[in-house]
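We were asked to recover a plausible sequence for a given structure. The inputs and outputs are reproduced exactly as logged, with field labels preserved.

PROBLEM: sequence recovery
POSITIONS: 219
GIVEN STRUCTURE:
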């Protein structure tokens, strides 16, 4: 069979009012037709490096996707990513956090990316989805926080294809998020058996299979 595409890796600094680090893994040469870019956020105890260690960035690039994992400012261990002084985006309004993600998408040249949002990163992803959902090719919420801050009518207005993912052992946040996110008109649900809240860490092969299947349906 054909040899897998070469991958180009880079670490970029995204400037602006809330600077952050971005890990970029790109197929080289890019496939034709172009496959969706993927932007990966992270949970409270994790960072952009989580997706590198898990093999997600390399896997996505091998499948022809430009994959970018960012450090949410002030929420990871990336030294120097955020000035010691100044307000963190979590202290901003939901509109401010949506603006932060929009800035990242623009600075990194992402074209209608698929947004992957586990746990704490829902504080950023949900306001972005509701305000700028048309700028996304897809949305992959993984038991995100903050879903109850928005009503069914708001979710029903979003036309972004969505893969709702959670582990069957996450009986708290995973199922709570599902009750809100099920109002998204274009959603499907995948429950990973034997996985807890960080289901992608507990069952990475099952997670990758579900993610690639969803991405394949978008093409």
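RECOVERED SEQUENCE:
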């Amino acid at each position: 069979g054909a040899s897998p595409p070469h991958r180009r890796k880079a670490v970029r600094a995204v400037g602006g009012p809330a600077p952050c680090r971005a890990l970029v893994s790109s197929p080289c040469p890019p496939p034709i037709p172009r496959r969706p870019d993927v932007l990966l956020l992270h949970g409270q105890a994790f960072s952009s490096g989580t997706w590198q260690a898990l093999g997600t960035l390399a896997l996505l690039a091998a499948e022809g996707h430009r994959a970018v994992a960012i450090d949410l400012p002030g929420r990871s261990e990336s030294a120097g990513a955020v000035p010691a002084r100044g307000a963190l985006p979590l202290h901003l309004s939901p509109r401010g956090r949506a603006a932060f993600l929009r800035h990242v998408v623009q600075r990194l040249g992402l074209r209608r990316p698929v947004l992957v949002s586990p746990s704490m990163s829902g504080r950023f992803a949900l306001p972005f989805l509701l305000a700028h959902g048309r700028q996304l090719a897809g949305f992959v919420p993984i038991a995100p926080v903050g879903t109850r801050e928005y009503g069914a009518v708001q979710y029903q207005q979003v036309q972004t294809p969505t893969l709702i993912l959670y582990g069957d052992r996450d009986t708290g946040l995973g199922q709570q998020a599902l009750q809100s996110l099920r109002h998204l008109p274009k959603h499907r649900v995948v429950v990973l058996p034997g996985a807890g809240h960080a289901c992608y860490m507990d069952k990475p092969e099952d997670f990758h299979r579900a993610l690639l299947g969803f991405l394949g349906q978008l093409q």
